[in-house]
Amino acid sequence: MTISAKWRTWLLYAGVAAVVAYCLAPFYWMLVSSLRRTTDIFDTSLLPSPVSFENYRAVFDPSQGFGRALLNSLIVAGITTVLALLLATFTAYAMARLEFPFKRLVLTLIIATSMFPVVSIVVPLLKLFTNIGWINTYQAMIVPSMSFTLPLAVWNLTTFFRQMPDELEHAAMIDGCTRGQAFRKIIIPLAAPGIFTTAIITFIAAWNEFLIALSMTNKPDIQTAPVAISKFTGATTYETPFGSQMAAGVLVTIPLVIMVLLFQRRIVAGLTAGAAK
């Protein structure tokens, strides 16, 4: 390896390290702050001294209702992911296989709907849900969340289905399968990496949603984790519990990190599947 090649390699590694450090720095500081005592919360040292778990004990104080909020987040994100994935799979397959006028325009409109800022739809939805009695219900958070998760899922899966050759269905139909059976027995198993990747992305988006959940709920027993964190109270009315909020942020982030680490091979396979076809 020449000197110039070594320098390029080192520069590549340095660039990757810089990007990783930049991305992980906020999470690292959140973790360190969560392990500080309340009296040391504004300390600027890189490591907590001494290490304290009082913030984590405060998070699970019954008065905070954080355990219930985590369950609510799991319910909302889980149902949103299942519904979005179910609808997106059939829609994306139709968009990839069927020919009809203005198909490209329809697909463009689908992805364009996810680009509207959430704040622009909150007020009309709040009025609508108030009139039909949906405030403080799971569906008041699930249905609006699908307005940005479903278009994303349709776009991802349409691109994936387009990479799969039509001959797969034709061969299955020659062997006696109907188009529905070919879709269920051939296409869906082969599309599993792309579907799995889309499910992960959809779940993360629904899990982190804040504005809709904040606007559609005002009862603690129905609020999701991001909303519960924003409403943590300190020892006094005017005290902001930064330590407890940092600890809760760590607890909310850890499941996502573990999920990505466990399924990173499937995610990478889904993102790159069909690239060489």
Short key terms for the protein model shown above:
MetI-like_sf, mainly alpha, transmembrane helix, 13 helices, globular, 277 residues, single chain
Query: What does the radius of gyration come to?
Result: 23 Å
Structural category is: mainly alpha
Described by strand count, sense and barrel closure, the largest sheet is: none
Determine the mean pLDDT.
Answer: 85
Helix share, percent: over 70%
Could you give a quick summary of the protein structure above?
Its main location: membrane. This protein has 277 residues and is mostly helical.
Describe the structure.
- Residues 70-263 form the ABC transmembrane type-1 domain.
- The chain crosses the membrane at residues 12-31, 69-93, 105-126, 182-207, 242-263.
- This is Multiple sugar transport system permease protein.
- It comes from Streptomyces achromogenes.
- The chain has 277 residues and is mainly alpha-helical.
- Helix content is 71%, strand content 0%.
- It is built from 13 helices and no strands.
- α7 (167-174) packs across α8 and α9 (192-207) packs across α13.
- The two termini are 33 Å apart.
List the helices and strands and how they pair.
Layout: H1 3-34, H2 54-59, H3 66-97, H4 103-113, H5 119-132, H6 139-162, H7 167-174, H8 179-190, H9 192-207, H10 211-216, H11 225-230, H12 242-262, H13 264-272
